[in-house]
Amino acid sequence: MGRRMLALLLAGLVALAPGCAGEGQVSFSTQSRTLRLWVGPGAGSPLAEQAELFARQAAEYAEGSLAVEAVWEEPEAGGWELALLDGGQLAQAAPVFAMFSLPFLYDSGEHLGRALNDRQLLGSLSRQLEGVGLRPLAALYGGSPRLITAGPELRTPGDFQDLTLALGEGQSQQEAAFQALGARVVSAPAGQAAALLGRTAEDAGPVGAAEASLAQAQALAGQVEGLTLINSCHATAPLWLVARSESWEQLPEWQQAAVLEALAGLSGRMALQAQEEERTAREALEAAGAALVEVERPLLAQAVYEGGDYQLPDFFDRQLYDWIQEYA
């Protein structure tokens, strides 16, 4: 999907370039302006209700002069003004965005939000995206998978030595990080790694830990004796709400303010929803006799990014890494 995604991000800017629009093209009107919000596939279906509420609130705050229409299917080139995309999708336009999805960067969704929504950082990212006509408006957090185990607790770097770990496919940097900690990593189709817990993987031995959603962990709590949920911080990553720069700049300031106010509501609701899902899961797991463990996240990050066994990707930025850690 890489070339297609990049084409969607870049195409349509030609139509907005000076001299390219036909005389009959309709210009924006402050009386009836519609922004199409593309919810990319990496955002996930649970965001449907939140995106629709964001759209309604933006219209309300703009006193009816602005409408936001959520688009779920992949649009034609240039067929959106706002987009909700994951870091992998944005990294096709600017590789730096892959940096923010690396493992062990954040203690929590709150940590992620504080670091990535700093106005100075957003301004720097906007400048890096100027060449492709995109503007990041906010980093959002909607939850992330954890690890589960029926064996010893996993807290520190040494606990992962010689562990066979199942992860969902498509997480090359997570795999490399756990391998740097001494684990053997086996891949499973996305969302199916939890089913491998306790099974024997070819050439890797019994799977001692596996990636799982909170819902999967709850379902297994009554089936797997001695289950432990590890708040592993390995897959905590943002979704980005971005605007096409030219479309955004054509909005008067008060309409921009309406969108940003609605966006603040969206960010807050997503954070509260993630917190509520975690609280409910923790209560259910504790009631089922499962243990809950927090990893020593800074120690894991130090072992991975400073230990020498992990090959830092080309997009790794030490200054950004240090910036994020300052917000912990």
Automatic annotation (TrEMBL):
Keywords recorded for this protein, A-Z: Signal, Transport
Organism the protein comes from: Candidatus Anaerotruncus excrementipullorum
Protein name according to UniProt: TRAP transporter substrate-binding protein DctP
Keyword Membrane: no
One example of a Gene Ontology biological process annotation: transmembrane transport
Signal peptide interval: 1-21
Family under the similarity heading: Belongs to the bacterial solute-binding protein 7 family.
InterPro entries in UniProt: DctP_fam, TRAP_DctP_sf
Gene label: dctP
